[in-house]
Specification:
The structure is a homodimer of 199-residue chains. The first copy, chain A, has 199 residues and is α/β, with parallel strands linked by helices. Helices cover 45% and strands 13% of the residues of chain A. Chain A contains eight helices and six strands, in the order H-H-H-E-E-H-E-H-E-H-E-H-E-H. In chain A, helix 1 (7-16) packs across helix 2 and helix 2 crosses helix 3 (39-55).
């Protein structure tokens, strides 16, 4: 920020700008805040960063972030190995888990395709997914549960192609009117999909 | 974020939330980004945090953040010791320095009073400012250059009272129409101030 900033302060501001969504001004505000009011928080963050970099890796099966070879979900032998639900993030996986209706296995891509942001096939877990599908003979159905955004749909397209090329059954989460909503307030695209997918 | 997050990942997300303006969702996004795409950046940030906490302190004279006993500006013997310009942040000081028209000394409060956010007199450098004014007999004029926001004006009021109680001359940056602007597009409060302060 200031040209007169001491070297260590400037280095901290530059390092903070490597966080997504943090620009020059936010980085300065964060650095001032930590050094003025929360030096304990700064040291705690430093230790948490080092501990996470050392101890967090990808689950060997589902590609989510885990501390052991396998994440708790993949280590659970009671999960149904014939279904594989592909999601974008651990948060999406957690949302599905909270419903309590899915007992199959997961694959977490850790992102979505977004060419405009420079996120291509090699930046998300597409290669590990292909490997998983090739080495897991029990899988019969791939449930594509990426988000219903432009990026999520593009990602779903590629995932579906991968799975179909291996002769697997591919399904996608149903689009439709959210539970508890009134038609008057639902957007037209959603109603159109709900009409087309009526059963 | 996710209940299934490994402990180190959850600890990192919690530590990131100590940064101002970072909530649960941003913290999760930052943690995933660092562990997925920028582990070097994470380690660099950890080191920058530790180095700053160890090596950055307040300048003994002007209260800004500095690596030595005195910041470069206070260590400069050619600056005019009769004028003391009180600013909120190092960024504000840098803005005044860029004009090249001020050769006096500074005091950096490192914040502004904001009771609603729990920022009281002891959270910004008002006590060190009082001490500075009491122990710097050369100071004749205190130039209050806090921001023209509600918080900046409240801070200016307190700083002015402090300085006047010590018998010092207190001035405030002029409010008025910004250079290069057309009156038609200037807000009414600014025009009213510019009228009142006409000379």
């Amino acid at each position: 920020m200031s040209e007169a900033s001491p070297g260590r302060l400037r280095a901290l501001m530059q390092a903070l700008q490597r966080l997504p969504g943090v620009g020059q001004r936010s980085a300065a505000r964060m650095a001032y805040h930590l050094l003025q009011h929360d030096r304990d928080g700064a040291l705690q963050l430093a230790q948490a960063l080092q501990a996470a970099v050392q101890g967090v890796r990808h689950c060997a099966l589902c590609h989510t972030l885990a501390e052991d070879e396998l994440c708790p979900t993949c280590a659970d032998p009671t999960r149904d190995a014939t279904q594989l639900c592909v999601v974008e993030t651990p948060a999406d996986q957690a949302a599905i888990e909270r419903t309590g209706v899915y007992r199959g296995r997961y694959f977490v891509l850790m992102g979505h395709l977004s060419p405009l942001d420079g996120i291509g096939p090699d930046d998300i877990g597409l290669r590990p997914l292909l490997q998983r599908l090739q080495t897991a003979p029990a899988v019969q159905e791939v449930i594509v549960a990426t988000n219903f955004t432009a990026e999520g749909e593009a990602t779903a397209h590629v995932v579906s192609q991968l799975a179909r090329a291996l002769g697997l059954r591919v399904t996608r989460l149903a689009r439709g009117v959210p539970v508890g909503s009134e038609l008057e307030y639902v957007d037209l695209g959603t109603i159109a999909h709900a009409l087309a997918d009526r059963h």
